[in-house]
Amino acid sequence: MTETQVRVNYSETDQMGVVYHARYLVWLDVARCEHIRQAGVSYAELERQGFRLAVGDLRIRYRQPARYDDVVRVRCWVREAVTRRVTFGYALDVPARQVMVATAETGMMVLDARLGVGKLPAEVLALIPAEADPVRLF
Amino acid sequence: MTETQVRVNYSETDQMGVVYHARYLVWLDVARCEHIRQAGVSYAELERQGFRLAVGDLRIRYRQPARYDDVVRVRCWVREAVTRRVTFGYALDVPARQVMVATAETGMMVLDARLGVGKLPAEVLALIPAEADPVRLF
Amino acid sequence: MTETQVRVNYSETDQMGVVYHARYLVWLDVARCEHIRQAGVSYAELERQGFRLAVGDLRIRYRQPARYDDVVRVRCWVREAVTRRVTFGYALDVPARQVMVATAETGMMVLDARLGVGKLPAEVLALIPAEADPVRLF
Amino acid sequence: MTETQVRVNYSETDQMGVVYHARYLVWLDVARCEHIRQAGVSYAELERQGFRLAVGDLRIRYRQPARYDDVVRVRCWVREAVTRRVTFGYALDVPARQVMVATAETGMMVLDARLGVGKLPAEVLALIPAEADPVRLF
Q1: Cβ contacts of residue D4 below 8 Å, gap of 6+?
Q2: Could you say which of C9, C10, C29 has the minimum Cβ distance to residue B9?
Q3: Which residue in chain A is spatially nearest to C12 when comparing CA positions?
Q4: What is the model's pLDDT at position D59?
Q5: With contact defined as beta carbons under 8 Å apart, do A110 and A43 qualify?
Q6: Residue B131 CA to its chain's centroid (Å)
Q7: Which residues of C touch B69 (CB under 8 A)?
Q8: Cβ separation of B23 and A22 shorter than 8 Å?
Q9: Do B17 and D13 touch (CB under 8 A)?
């Protein structure tokens, strides 16, 4: 499990005075890239090698709103990884306010450069082993 | 069930050459607002009356990518509606290419102006009855 | 000069209760694409032929805020067009509230598919002649 | 002058394979908030006190494209500050690639909580003195 921090900027808020719900997905993306970077794999490098990880399905539960200037901690881990599909779990909270913001899961499909079905190399898979969920997701 | 059309603009694409997955959530939002507008309820007016509909949980399955300049049809319907919660279903396709793009569900929490628990008035609920799913969602 | 209409969606607002200033640039993009489409050129088709129009410089004056659910009219015209560069002007207002929202100008550089310097074909240039400004921009 | 770093995420790219031009405005916003934070003023706190800084006009020159995973350095400074208006300058580059990405200027209007004309307190103005441009902007 890795931790990534993002500070909420103004563009991420909406007129309800909280973060617009679609913005969370970008944070999941950022956390996912940091997770594999810390595992030794750069997504930019994976792309140059002809691989793509595209979101195939996504589920998110919004618990408490994140707010402007909050520093959100995104915990990210691999739930399951096989050659054609990697599933990530996420838990987002704001430690300074002791608030759980959201939990989520994304199923990533492995694609090739033409967006056809791809296979992740065994040496990459070995770097991102599945872990048990640290929190209940849904 | 209502239908809303959105044309994909350049800002919605990413360097994979397709629509970035988080953008779809904005289309769901637009379709949901059009659905209730056609039912006779303006979300802007609901807000002025002190109601908020906030996404509590969301699930989406990405099937085929939407692309720049595609005209995406978003079919939207209510799956379940009670005073504190309204669940919407969505089916997104690109008729010109005969491609199913995504299916999704959002559970909306009814909140008051301070983002506390709210209750949707019976006369509003009566305007947005639940319907059977026109397609299988997941 | 062409006119394009966009309805403000919730994702475009911020916690100031108005449209976040960066969103206007997407509307300029949409209006620019509609302008050339109405002239008989699809930007999607131009891209397939190996051309890119990239914003080289941009200037915008924000006059009155656009708000959620506003229908914004974007008037768009070509101010100057040469083989390597096309300059567009824009005037954005909300007719229903009789409010001028913004005026803007974007200088577009013509690039080739590798983002090197490109040249727009004479037959394309002929379709998008320069026009006098219908309003004062700055 | 302050420096803020942002790493380009995938949502910020477009199908040209570079950062979509409107995303840069969010980085200017982030850098501006960090600039005043380092000066001892939190924008979140300013808002709570009833002040708003809204972009009144903006000019940006795009020089070389920023790309996915680039770490962009945003230098930010105040060009002019009076009670009703503060003008910021920005220079964006990618040090790792020695590439100047963009230069920009934003004129911020001081507003009150109802978005009427406001005045920035003298003690706030004293914290953000104007500086000479470190680079030529346009």
Answers
A1: D27, D30, D31, D34, D35, D73, D74, D76
A2: C29
A3: A14
A4: 98
A5: no
A6: 14
A7: 33, 42-44
A8: yes
A9: no
**pLDDT score, position D37:** 97
Yes or no, beta carbons of D22 and B11 under 8 Å apart: yes
Question: What's the whole-model pTM score?
Answer: 0.98
Would the CB atoms of D18 and B15 count as touching at under 8 Å?
yes
- Tell me, what DSSP letter sits at residue A48? H
Residues of C in contact with A11 (CB under 8 A): 14, 20, 22
C30 touches C74 (CB < 8 A): yes
Q: Each residue of C55-89: pLDDT tens digit?
A: 999 999 999 999 999 999 999 999 999 999 999 99
What residues in chain C have their Cβ under 8 A from chain A's Cβ atoms?
10-11, 13-18, 20, 22, 68
| D64 to chain A, closest Cα gap in Å | 19
Structure tokens at A103: 């939990």
In chain C, the residue whose alpha carbon lies closest to the alpha carbon of B26 is C11
d(CA B88, CA B99) in angstroms, rounded, equals: 22
Q: SS3 of D86, please?
A: strand
**Chain B residues with beta carbon closer than 8 angstroms to that of D15:** 10, 13-18, 68
Average pLDDT of chain D is 97
Reduced to 3 states (helix: H, G, I; strand: E, B; else coil), residue D85 is strand
Chains that touch B (3 or more CB pairs under 8 A): A, C, D
Q: pLDDT band at residue C104, thresholds of 50, 70 and 90? A: very high
Query: In this structure, what token pair is assigned to residue C109?
Result: 């550089």
Q: How far apart are CA D56 and CA A118, in angstroms?
A: 48
Element (H, E) at B107: strand B99-112
A116: how many CB neighbours lie within 10 A of its CB?
8
Q: How confident is the model at residue D13 (pLDDT cuts 50, 70, 90)?
A: very high
Beta strand extents in chain A (DSSP E only): 2-7, 51-62, 71-82, 85-94, 99-112
pLDDT at B104: 98
Hey, what are B100's tokens? 């199913």
Q: What is the pLDDT of residue C100?
A: 98
pLDDT (tens digit per residue) in A43-93:
999 999 999 999 999 999 999 999 999 999 999 999 999 999 999 999 999
Contacts of D69 in chain A (CB under 8 A): 33, 42-44
Amino acid at D15: Q
Chain D residue with CA closest to B67: the answer is D15
Q: Across the interface, which of C10, C20, C68 has its CB nearest the CB of A11? A: C20
The whole-angstrom separation of Cα B116 and Cα B110 is 9
The contacts found for D85-88 with CB under 8 angstroms, 24 or more apart, are: D85/D56, D85/D109, D85/D110, D86/D53, D86/D110, D86/D120, D86/D128, D88/D28, D88/D32, D88/D35
Instruction: Tell me how many residue pairs between chain C and chain D have CB atoms under 8 A apart.
Output: 60
Cβ of C9 and B33 within 8 Å? yes
Distance of alpha carbon B92 from alpha carbon B101, whole angstroms: 5
**Bridge partner list, B82:** B85
CA distance D15 to chain C (A): 10
The counts of H helices and E strands in chain A are 3, 5
